[in-house]
Structure formats: C-alpha cells, structure tokens
C-alpha cells in the first residue's frame, strides 16, 4: 500500500512515515504544504491520504475540497487540533473519511488507516480469504490450507495487495507504484523476482497455483482455485 502524508511539522511527518513503513510495511510519500500534497495526489495513486488541517500555501480543507471536486475517492484521514464537534462534522460532510485529534497514538493511527483501506477495498474484516489462502492483516501472517507460509516483507505486501483485489488483473507497474518507497523505474524487474519467490513458497505441494500471470497484462489471484473451493 502507498500512503501520502501531508503534514508541515517535519518531525511529526517523519514519525508518521516511520510508523507506516516499519509497523505496516507501507510505502510513504510526504509533503510539507498543501499545494505540494495536492500535486502529488494528482500524479500518483494512493491507498490513503493522511492530511493535516493547518498547512501552508493551501490548508487541509482546501486540499480535501480539491480532491473531492476532482472525483478523487482516496480515503482521507484528517489530523486536527480542533476537537469541536461542529468542526469535525463539517470535515466529515466535506468528504473526510475519519479523523484523529492531536496529540494521537501512532498505533491508533495505523489501526485506523488499515481499517479505512480495507473499507475502501470493500473488505470489513482484518482477515482476507481467497479459497484456501488466509491473510491476517493485523498479525501479517499467511496460511494456506492451515499451513503457515513464511514470506518476506515484500512477498507479503504483494500478496496482500492482490488479495485486496480479487479477480482483478494487477500490472507490474501498479505493484511497483503502490509497494515501493523509491523510484520504481530503476527496479522494473524486481517484482518478477518477488512473485517468483512468493509462488515457490505458497504453491509448495499444492495442486493449483496461487497467482496467475497474464502475459503483457500482469498478475491475478488464481480463479481456478477460488472457484473450486
């Protein structure tokens, strides 16, 4: 998953980014003002935007209004020092999906972020299932037919991203853009290697492959295994 953090307090932004990277394994971009944040949101696809209200150049309300007026449905979690009920109601009515008042616990921020991402993908539970594969997003564990599969962090992220998109073909470029925390153009072959390792681990001693490769299009969770379950 890829997160955009728009926060002008540099130390806080760094702490939030570190929490997402280390605690959830997410890729993170940061912007120190609303104008830069709005520009990033236009040029990249994000799974969640964490948005401070008090920003230079363009405040958080302006960023939120711009996103929604342009049809951007990315979940937005607001960070605010305002605890007044009327202010919160106005934010939610303007298109915010959730909020946290400062100061806040980073663990709660991650938990709320994961819940928003799940809901945006149409998944209410923290456990994702497809046929005989079970992925626990809280524990970051994967089982197939009851057997624990030991995956590397990137292998887990690839599988989680695919499981949020059942029956959808996901291109290599999309995986790189959502999962890598640096310029993906310099790592265009790395996804193929990770998917190969993921297959080797999750398909060991199994009749059906977990992931289909559609030449020239990308990857998709195996429908044969899902339909036969």
Overview in brief:
By secondary structure, this protein is of the alpha/beta class.
Notes on the protein architecture:
With 229 residues, this protein is an alpha/beta fold. The protein folds into 2 domains: 2-120, Response regulator (Rossmann fold, 3-Layer(aba) Sandwich), CATH 3.40.50.2300; 127-228, Winged helix-like DNA-binding domain superfamily/Winged helix DNA-binding domain (Arc Repressor Mutant, subunit A). 42% of the residues lie in helices and 21% in strands. Strands 2-1-3-4-5 form a 5-stranded parallel sheet, sandwiched between helices. Helix 1 (10-24) crosses helix 5 and helix 6 (153-163) packs across helix 8 (190-202). The radius of gyration is 19 Å and the shape is elongated. The model has no long low-confidence stretch (mean pLDDT 87).
Layout of helices and strands:
Layout: E1 2-6, H1 10-24, E2 27-31, H2 34-43, E3 48-52, H3 60-69, E4 76-80, H4 85-93, E5 98-101, H5 106-120, E6 127-130, E7 133-136, E8 141-144, E9 147-149, H6 153-163, H7 172-179, H8 190-202, E10 211-214, E11 218-221, H9 223-228
Parallel strand pairs: 1-2, 1-3, 3-4, 4-5
Antiparallel strand pairs: 6-7, 7-8, 8-9, 10-11
């Amino acid at each position: 998953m890829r997160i955009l953090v728009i926060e002008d307090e540099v130390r806080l932004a760094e702490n939030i980014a570190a929490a997402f990277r280390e605690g959830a394994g997410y890729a993170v971009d940061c912007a120190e003002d609303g104008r830069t944040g709005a520009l990033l949101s236009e040029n990249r696809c994000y799974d969640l935007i964490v948005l401070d209200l008090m920003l230079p150049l363009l405040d958080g309300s302006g960023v939120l209004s711009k996103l929604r007026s342009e049809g951007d449905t990315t979940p937005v979690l607001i960070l605010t020092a305002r605890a007044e009920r009327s202010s919160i109601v106005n934010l939610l009515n303007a298109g915010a999906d959730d909020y946290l008042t400062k100061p806040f616990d980073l663990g709660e921020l991650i938990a709320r972020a994961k819940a928003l991402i799940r809901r945006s993908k149409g998944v209410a539970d923290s456990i994702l299932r497809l046929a005989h594969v079970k992925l626990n997003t809280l524990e970051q564990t994967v089982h197939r037919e009851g057997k624990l599969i030991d995956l590397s962090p990137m292998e887990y992220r690839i599988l989680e991203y695919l499981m949020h998109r059942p029956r959808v073909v996901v291109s290599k470029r999309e995986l790189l853009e959502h999962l890598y925390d640096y310029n993906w153009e310099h790592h265009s072959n790395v996804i193929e290697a990770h998917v190969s390792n993921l297959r080797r681990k999750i398909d060991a001693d199994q009749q059906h492959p977990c992931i289909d490769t559609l030449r020239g299009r990308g990857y998709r969770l195996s429908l044969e295994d899902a339909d036969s379950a």
